[in-house]
Amino acid sequence: MSKSPISSSSSPQWLYDVFLNFREDSTGGRNTFASRLYLALNMAGVNTIIRETSNKGKELDPELSRSIEGSRIAVVVFSENYPESSQCLEELVKIMDCHKHYGQLVMPIFYDVNPSHVRQQTGAFGKALEQLAEEQFEGRRVVDLLLRWGSALTQAANLSGWVSRASRNEAELLENIVEGVLGKLVDKLVHITEFPVGLESHVQEITRYIKNQSSKVCVIGIWGMGGVGKTTIAKAVYNHIHHNFVHRSFLGSIREICQIDNRGHIHLQKQLLMDVIKTKVEIHNIEMGITMIEKRLYGKKVLVVLDDVSNYKQVEALCANRKWIGQGSVMIITTRDVRILQILQVDHVFEMMAMNESESLELFSWHAFKEARPTRDFIALSRHAVTYCGGLPLALEVLGSYLYGRRIQEWESVLSKLKRIPNDFVHEKLKISYDGLLDYTEKNIFLDICCFFIGMDRAYVTTILNDCGFHSEIGISVLIEKGLIKIEKNNKLGMHDLLRDMGREIIRQSSPEEPEKRSRLWACEDVLDVLKEQTGTKAIEGLALILDRTSNTQFETKAFEKMKRLRLLKLNHVQLVGDYEHLPKHLRLVHWQGFPLKHIPDNFYLGDVVALDFKRSNITHVWKKPQLLLRLKFLNLSHSRYLMRTPDFSKLPNLEKLILKDCPNLSEIHPSIGDLSNILVINLKDCTSLCNLPRTIYLLKSLKTLILSGCSRISKLEEDIGQMESLTTLIADNTAVKQVPFSIVRSKSIGYISLCGYEGLARNVFPSIIWSWMSPTMNASSHMHPSQDMSSSPVYLDSLNNNLGDLAPIFGSSSKLRSVLVQCSSEVQLTQELRTIIDEQYAVNFTELETTSCASQVSDLSLRFILIGIGSCEILSDTLGTSISKGLNTGVSGGLCLPGDNYPYWLTHTGEGHSVSFRVPQDSSRCLKGMTLCVSYSSTLEDVTAECLVSILIVNYTNCTIHIYKRETAISFDDEEWQGIRSNLGPGDNMKIFVLFRHGFTVKKTVVYLVYGELIDTKSQLS
């Protein structure tokens, strides 16, 4: 791995300070002024290079080309005879190329020549240039040379430099030039790090983003915990792009400067202005500095890095308003507090993450061994050290340097010590973030999380700490913003191990020798000492003792008697003997895994408890008599294998989560569960002895999640479940439930369901459930409550929120569910849904239905017909049936003789094959009373009446709806169904009706009769 700052072709490492470009005199010797300038620069300590020989008429020598590329500054001396040298001009072309691509500074000197003549190639300067170009120089065309050289001359002459006539004498000119060069060299690349492991990918990401924002002012933030490498990345980015900016400033250690010096803000303002305008200024107060910065920076393209900002006022005093600076400007802010970046409304926040294992080992090895990999004997120890550092560059560098050159035994001793006491330097650096917290509540929240709540649900912790008076909603948010904690998968609280150790060390240092005087106890040996010796004090606010399940350690309850301020108690497999009255009276959390008793003693005061967690306990019943616990919100008795019944819930009015997972002997849920008006979650997973739920549970309007999976003896969910108006998640897989309550499908709140073999988002699952009720291959009654009548109104499906692609066939002989209304968002989507339903669910080609008659070759003599009445049109249906039968029996040509239009009583529309199209008449003076469908078909089935199941799709292209009905041929539509259809028809609506049969039927013609007004004696009309 290279030890150079950044390895990139677009950012060369400078070999020289200055390359001097000038024209030799007429004798081939050095220009007198150029010689004196070269001497003056070298005497000032400037590493200056000039060409040694002239190669007139040839390309640049490769060595000379490399010298130009490796020079940080190019000083170009334009003289009257400058355009007489092709060597000078080729060098200038190369210089301007390096200026463009590598950020090389170019400083022109106009020695006894007019800058405008150089810029525009006019006067004697221009004539000399043309004369040189006209010479035959390697066959190049004159125009090409003039364009190439002229472009370089113009670009260089447009840059700021010196004009000899502006100085009183040559000595003054030389002094000014040397001073100017030195000023530029002072602004060197900022030092990054000796071992830049893993930097380049971050630099590329940030610079790529900046490049894409080049047309505006770009403000970005680099955020992360202390020691993660924010400053290092900011320096590397600054070095990478600084050459694009004439005006630039890197302001480092802002937090520290402002903390140490009460005039720190003014000091930073002065530095910013000095860096940008290269002039010292006097600033007497912060407000004056803000005004001056606004005035001097206004409209300029600047690069400003504000490193280690700890509060908004620091930015406000320097460069908070992006309106002050010009387009193309870049401002980079590094901070541990993302809230500052949010207030500034930065364009993008780059969050610095910990290094991966490979990068961590390499960085550690560079510091511990001065090599990229550990030596053989130290590989295992190095991996332990890297694991401890958790990918934090600061810790890797500090620990690696500390272990450099030490023996194996010393390594082992250091790593063992770090398990108890963090490295001082790392601890102090990380503690900066803790010290920056504004009040004691934020600090208390951080310390509580360090010791007791890592890996726990954020909402759970928030509720407990709120009850401790810590205002934890805002407190936890502040800790996240400052990078002290993070939110991991499933909303769990997380924290870097070194930050955890830093917080615990703060507590340990409060009383290094007497743990009983600390506010929190978590280390097993410390807790054991305090409990065995019964030395507890009122200083203790939290205590955790985690023992193995096989532990038989016992303590007297009196050991807790003096812990008057104990709020948080976490015990695993701990046994207490004695009177539980000695336990503290202000507990907010009692987490006691493996609680040894069969019930909680009545004198164990829990009146202030917010969360009771007795997982894997020996409890058979929670209390002998109900306990009034007004603050209790969480009750967890999971994996309590002896628990037989739940407590009486009537005295737990604020309970929000009831977790009873894997309680195999639980057989009774107290009916008072219906009194829990604030309950959000009930989890009864794998309670295998539970046979039913009390009906009162369906009264829970606040319940959001109900989990019954694995309750193998629960066989029924009541239709009352529809009363749970907040229920969003229902998980009841692996139960004996065979009926899907219809009220669930009608629920507007359900978001996720797992029931009767259906699992997924409700919008995907519900259509499958509905269609299964209508499928001929499934016994619908096995999925429905037998008393549920679903024929009165259609099930409504919104195709925007439901996936209709997995629908089963919709016609069946046993289901009472007979209609579905599908709402589409557009005619295009409606056509797609039709294709899905017809092609995939009926195995009928939708394209054929649209374009051809699938009955074109059917013999008229084999035709039969079906009449389906919809609405008030019985007389018409009877008369049509008589007329068609008469035509068939007498062998009328064409097989069927159907009446045509007889307006104002009906309108007739005929379609070939399975469908018929029509437009609802615009005449609103007559009321549409009903319609009759007449379908002529042939069938290979002998017993048509037994098999002739039909589905009717009424498609409204205007309203983008598909109304699907399942029918037997003998059944007509009732009045309520007709009203449902009629309500979806409007004058002028573009309609189409599909009539689809089961296999064995071939349809020739479909006719619809729209019946208007009052029906008269239709027999006379048909005769």
UniProtKB/TrEMBL annotation:
This is TIR domain-containing protein. The keyword Heme does not apply. It comes from the Eukaryota. GO terms for biological process: defense response; signal transduction. Residues 14-185 form the TIR domain. Keywords: Leucine-rich repeat, NAD, Repeat. It comes from Clitoria ternatea (Butterfly pea). GO terms for molecular function: ADP binding.
